[in-house]
Adenylate kinase isoenzyme 6 homolog
Amino acid sequence: MASSEDQNKRRKPNILISGTPGTGKTTTSVALAEATQLRHINVGELAKEKNLHDGWDDQFDSYVINEDLVCDELEDAMEEGGNIVDYHGSDFFPERWFDRVVVLQTDNSVLFDRLSKRGYPETKIKNNIECEIFQVLLEEAKENYPEDIVVALRSDSIEDMSRNVATLTEWLRNWQPVS
């Protein structure tokens, strides 16, 4: 949880939306940003745009994020508050940055279809499905943040995503910085 000193600097909370690729992180983050006027930060896109990576990984068909560079780039914005950070992992971000950590979860058959439509190679699909089965990202979030700020939300359908945006918008309405 953010320390009271960090929260006093922030008038708006920071939310991390994480989950296995294909669970709807970006779709949910964009919709939540529109509903709440918070700033959406897609870490993968930011890393690509600002060269905050250590090159391309052919095996996983993605950039290798340089976690230190990403954290340095985000530090000021995170201290200011009012951010929705969209990234599959959660373990390298400072605990103090987030007031809510959301892990989106999707049924394996739905996830398989979404990743197949993206044209992911079979090995990448298998890796991501296994990650979802074993709840790797939920466990990672629970290990790195206070349990009371971590929530798992179902993300199988448009209705689920809409409900998640409504739930998080309501949470935001009730959020108060620690005095």
Summary: The chain has a mean pLDDT of 93.
